[in-house]
Amino acid sequence: MPGNANANQVVPKAMDMEMQPIVKEPKASSDQPVMRGEETDKEKVSMCAVVGGILCCPATLCYSWFQVQEKTNVVILHCGTYTGIVTEPGCHWVNCCGRENHVVDVGIISHELKNTKIIEKSGTPIIVGAVVTYRIVNAKRAVLDVQSYKKFIQDKAITVLKQVVSRYPYQPSKATPGEPSLLTETKDISHEMETEFGKVIAVAGAEVISFQLNEISYAPEIASAMLKRQQASAVIDAREAIVKGAVNIALDSMDALKAGGVTFTPEEQANLVSNLLVVTSSDQGAAPVVNVGTS
What we know:
Layout: H1 2-19, H2 47-55, H3 57-63, E1 65-68, E2 72-78, E3 81-86, E4 90-93, E5 99-105, E6 109-119, E7 125-136, H4 139-144, H5 149-165, H6 186-201, E8 206-218, H7 220-259, H8 266-281
Antiparallel strand pairs: 1-4, 2-3, 2-5, 6-7, 7-8
Helix pairs in contact: 2-3, 5-6, 7-8
């Protein structure tokens, strides 16, 4: 009968409309960019999920609801096939048959890299730590393009840290006083790490916010020797300053005595300058000896 034929044609279409999952695609924004030809084209749900949802209709209606929290995206797969992404927080209904929900944190994430031993430019082993800050801007790529986006980003952060730090010496040497070093050019080195880190984590749908060194020191096996070296350099610099000061004091003293009318023989002048240098450059208290003449 014509009436029955029309009814049979309308019912499957209505059931299909009811079971079709509603997946909200990401809007074009700075936090979640929409890639042309990927996110804007809604992919169809697997036929297995549709058939399963129809066969288990009451259970499907009850168990297909799920929540999306603030600062998270949910990437949805049905039977291993990407079917959409939900970016708006709240309750959402998507066919639960064969569904996998992958929750991605799209807030700002800060990760501290453990202290790592690195050989710097001059061949000295040093211990370096850093803090990297990033966020996910493309949840689909974070889930589908890498196996574990958090581990991937952490591993790449350590790799970039080693590569950049190994290009610079720990501190500038006297031979190359203007050479950039890890102690003097921290800001420029951090910017270089951010640039390289941003390139390698883009494949995981992430962008870097900052990459900063938070600790840098000599490795334990050479720390004692380098400390002695630094102490020796400090002592030499201090001695140079003391000797220059002593010479200036002796010269000024001789000039003042001559201006006051005091005359010295060359031998007396040499003895006076020698005594002044000993007294002013010595690191111990002076013990003067008074000459009272001979009997």
